[in-house]
Amino acid sequence: MTGSGEDWLSDGLDVGGADCGLWVPGVDYVAGWRGARVAADRLNRALLGAGFELSQVRAVASTDERGPGVVRVAGWPDAVERLAVLLEACAGGDGGAV
Fold first, then answer.
1. Are 51 and 24 in contact (CB under 8 A)?
2. Is 31 in contact with 67 (CB distance < 8 Å)?
3. Over the stretch 35-75, which tens digit does the pLDDT of each residue have?
4. Which of 22, 50, 64, 78 is 20 to 30 A away from residue 87, measured at CA?
5. Pseudo-torsion of CA 37, 38, 43, 48, nearest 10°?
6. Are 37 and 61 in contact (CB under 8 A)?
7. Can you tell me the distance from the alpha carbon of 86 to that of 98, in angstroms, rounded to the nearest whole number?
8. Are 47 and 54 a contacting pair, CB within 8 Å?
9. Cβ–Cβ contacts within 10 Å for residue 72, how many?
């Protein structure tokens, strides 16, 4: 899933986290990552549809240390602020749950 720029993989957004690279033998990380990838791709398509560039903000598939899938949103502060405004508008502007 890419935006209009092809340099989004090396744009400086660190999405690995502090525990990146820690693997436990016998844990099925791939199954969790696959589910997270589907969800991240869907969110990335929605972000693109809302006018965001994936070099600014994007969903990233990962797993936690036990193997379940995790989707993280990584972005530059100004893009995340724009996303927050959009989500608040969807929630009726009251900061409540959708």
1. no
2. yes
3. 999 999 999 999 999 999 999 999 999 988 888 999 999 99
4. 64
5. 90
6. yes
7. 12
8. yes
9. 14
